[in-house]
Amino acid sequence: MLQEDKAAILPSSIPFVDGVVVPFALEAAVCALSVNEPGPCMPGVLTPALGLPYPSLQDVPSTGKTLVVYGGSSSAGSMTIQLATAAGIRVIALAGAANLEFVKTCGAVAAFDYKDAHVVEKVVQAIGTTDFVGIFDAISLPETFELDLAVLTKMGGGWLACTHPPPKENVPENVKTGMIFAVNDIAAPVWRNYVTEALEKGKLKCLPPPTVIGKGLKFVNEGLKKSKEGVSATKLVVEL
Questions:
Q1: Is-contact 113 96, C-beta < 8 A?
Q2: Fewest CB atoms within 10 A around its CB: which of 31, 108, 159, 192?
Q3: Kind of pairing, strands 175-179 and 110-113?
Q4: How many whole angstroms separate alpha carbon 175 and alpha carbon 157?
C-alpha cells in the first residue's frame, strides 16, 4: 500500500519508465536538504539537519547559500541539485569529467571533475564569500570523504550529509556529520505541493535518464550486477 503523501500524479506526457527515477531520489534529496533537527538514523549516527527551504514552483531569489553536491550525476545527486536550485540555493557539483555538462543541466552553477588534482582549491574558489552550508555526498566512500573534509576544513566547517555512515576519524570539531534516512515525513509537502506541477512545467526533470535492463523479474539480477560494476549518469530500470 502506498501512502497518499508519498505519491504524485505523473503527467501523461512523461512515460512511467522515465518517472520511476523520481520517487526514491526525491525522498533522499529532501531528507538531505530540509530536515531541521538531527534525529536517529542508525545506532550512533544521527541524520543531518541542513534546514534548507523546500523547492518552489516560482522563480525564487537567491538565498545567498551555497551547497556542494559530490556525485552530482547520480540519482540522488541530480535530484538534490534540482530541488536545491528550485529553493534558491546555489549548487556546486562534483562529478566525473564526462558528466560535468549533465550536472549543469540539473542546475549546478559550477561543476568540477573530482579527479582534478586541484579540485579542492577550485571548489573553495567557486564557493567564494557566499554562505557555505556544507556538502551532500551522494557517494559517501572513504575516498570521497577525504575530499569532502579537505573542502570543509578550508571553508572553516559546515555540514557533511552522507548516504552511508559518515567518517569517524579526522573530522574537525567545526564539521557536523549525518547520514540521511531516505524515508521521512519531511518530504510529504514536496510530494503534495510541488512534484506534479513541477513535472508538468518542466521545472523538475526525470534525471538521470533511465537505462532499461529488460522486462521481467528475471532481469533484476542483471541490474544488480550492472549496478555493482558501476553506472554513471543513468538509473537502471527493470520493467514489469
A1: yes
A2: 192
A3: unpaired
A4: 5
**Predicted confidence (pLDDT) per residue in 149-179, tens digit:** 999 999 999 999 999 999 998 999 999 999 9
- Residue extent(s) of CATH 3.40.50.720 domains in the chain: 22-52+60-185
Percent of the residues in the chain that have a pLDDT greater than 90, as a whole number: 88
Tell me the C-alpha to C-alpha distance, in Å, between residue 12 and each of 37, 193, 210.
37, 18, 18
Q: What are phi and psi of 147, to 5 degrees?
A: -70, -45
Other Cβ atoms within 10 Å of 169 Cβ, number: 7
Looking from the CA of 200 toward its CB, the CA atoms found within 13 Å total 11
Cite the DSSP H helix spans in 86-128.
100-105, 119-127
DSSP string computed for 124-158: HHHHTTSEEEEEEESS--HHHHHHHHHHHHHTT-E
What does the alpha-carbon distance between residue 68 and residue 30 come to, in Å, rounded to a whole number? 15
One-letter amino acid at 36 equals N
pLDDT of residue 1: 60
Asked whether 99 and 75 are in contact (CB, 8 A), the reply is no
What are the cell numbers at 53? 527551504
Fold of 22-52+60-185: Rossmann fold (3.40.50)
Q: If pLDDT is split at 50, 70 and 90, which confidence band does 231 have?
A: confident
- Output the CA torsion sign for 234, 207, 125, 173: negative
